[in-house]
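User: I want to check something. If I give you two sequences, will you return the structure for each one separately, not as a complex?

Assistant: Yes, each is folded on its own. Here is the first sequence with its structure:
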Amino acid sequence: MTNNNKLVVKDNALIDASFNLSLIEQRIMLLAIVGARESSNLTPDTPIEVLVSDYIHQFKVDSNNAYGLLREAAKTLKRREFSYLDRYKGLEALTTANWVNKVTYVDSSGLIVLYLSKEVISLISRLSEQFTKYHIEQVSDFRSKYSIRLYELLIKWLNVAKTEKYSINDLRSKLGLDATEYSTMSNFKSNVLDRAVSEINKHTNITVEYDQFKKGRVITDIQFRIKSKVRSSQPELTRTSQVAFHQMTDAQINMFGNQLSRLPEFSNLADGNESYESLAAKIKEMLRDPIQQKQFFPHLKNLGFKA
C-alpha cells in the first residue's frame, strides 16, 4: 500500500475524544486503523497485523531500538483507555472504552497483532457522516505525541478555516494532559502547544496560528486558524462533506438554540456572567450563519436534529 492510499479515517467523536497515548502507541494505532480499512467485515475477533518493519519505514525511526520499544508499547496499549461523547437512551453521555481487547506480539516475525474493541471498530469503520480523514504521511515526521492529537483536532475544521474556541482545560484533556503535567501556562505553551504548532507548520499540508482569549490576565480559551498549503481544487486532507449549511426553521432554531446553550461545551461562548437566555439568543443567530453553524452540527445531531 502506497502512502497515498494510507488513509486514517475516524469518527469525529474519536477525533474529539480524550486520551493519553505515547507517541509509539499512537503510531501503532494509526497503522492499525489504516490496516483495518482493508478488512471487509471488521469485528473484535479480526486480527489486525502491524509489522515492525512497516513502522520503521513509515515513521523513519532507528531499527536498532524499534523492536524493543514496540514490544513494550504493545503491552501497555492493552491497558489504555479513551473517553468520548456518546448517547445512552437518547441522553448525552460520556463513554470510556479500551482501544484493544487483546494484543499479541510475535517476536520471531517482528509482528504486533491487535484485536480492536467494538467501540473503536464502530468509530473507524462503515462511517457515512461526521468523520475526518487524512493521509498518515502527514503525521509521520512528528516527534511529539501532542502534534498528532493537535493535527487531528485541527484538520476536522480545515474547511471552516478556524476551530471552535477550546477552553484550556478541554484542550489539555484532548491532548492527553493531566492536571500535574505542564501545569503553568508558560510550560504548556512551550513544551506542548508551540512545539506541536511548529511541527504541524513544518511537516504537514496546513499552517496554523492561534488566538488567546483572556478573562482579566488569565488565558482561558484558545482558537486556532488554519490554512491549507495545497490548492483548494485538490485538497489532500478533508473534513467530512457533511459541513454543508443546513437550513433550519425558526422553530428548530429556537428549540435547538435553547438546548445548545445549556451544554457545557459552549459555555465559552458566554460573556462573563451572561445568562442562559442571552447565550441562547447568541447561538440562535449563529445557527443562521453558514460558517458558524458548522461547529454546532455534531451536537445538533446528538440532540435529534435531522437534516
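And separately, the second sequence with its own structure:
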Amino acid sequence: MTMITAHSGSDNMGENSWTFIRFCLDRQLCFEVDVRQQTDGTLILAHDRQEVVPESVTLEQVFQAVANEKTTMTINCDLKEEGLEMAVFSLAQTYQIWTQIVLSGYVRVSWAAIWGKHIFYNIENQFEGKKLGDITEADLIETLQELAYQSVQIVNIHEGWLTELAREVGQQLGLTFSVWTVNELETIEYLASCGVYNITSRCAWAYLLWKKGAKSHAEILESQASLS
C-alpha cells in the first residue's frame, strides 16, 4: 500500500509549525518536516535559514511527542543542510523511534547501503551544477541505473520527472519511488495505483478524506475545517 505523507504545512497548516505537527499527530498522518541545525547543535524545523526564530519548533520536541504518544506514523526529515544524518539518527535513537524515521533532502548516497528504506534519496542531488530544466529523460534513466548500483532502494523524485519509462526502468532495477509534491487528488490516486512507495502532498488529509467518500474538494475542505 502506498504511504501518503503530509508535506510540511499540508492542508492549510503553517509550514514546520506546531499546529501542523499537532494536526498530523491527532490524525496518525505521516508527515514531513524541514530540518536545519543551529550553531549549538540543536536541530530546528525550518525550510530556510532566515525562517529560524526563537519560537521555532525543534526536532527534539517533535520526536518527544511522537514517542510520548506512542504513535506509529512515519516522519520524513527533509534535511536542508549537508551532514545532519547522524545527528537525526542519534536523536531518533534517544527516543527509540528510529524505525519510524525517513531521511530525504541533502543525504549522502552512501547511507542508502546502510539504512536501506530509511533513505528517500533525492535524485536531483546527482545533478549538482545542472539546471533542473535541462535534465532529460535519458539523464534520469542513467541516474536511476547509478543509484541502483549504489544500493539506493527508494528514489525521491518530482512528479514531473516520473515518466512512464522512468517508472518502468526503476522497477526493472529493483527501485521504488517516493513522489513529491503531488497536490491533485486524482494524480495521487493514479500514482498510488501504480504502486509507488510514497506520495508527499500538500493535501494529504484532504486526499484521505476524499478516499473515504467525500464528493468534492470543497466538501473535503469544509470537513477538514470542522476537524481542525
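Because they were folded independently, the notes below concern the second chain alone. The beta strands are 3-6, 30-37, 43-45, 75-79, 101-105, 120-122, 154-158, 176-180, 198-201. The longest strand covers residues 30-37.
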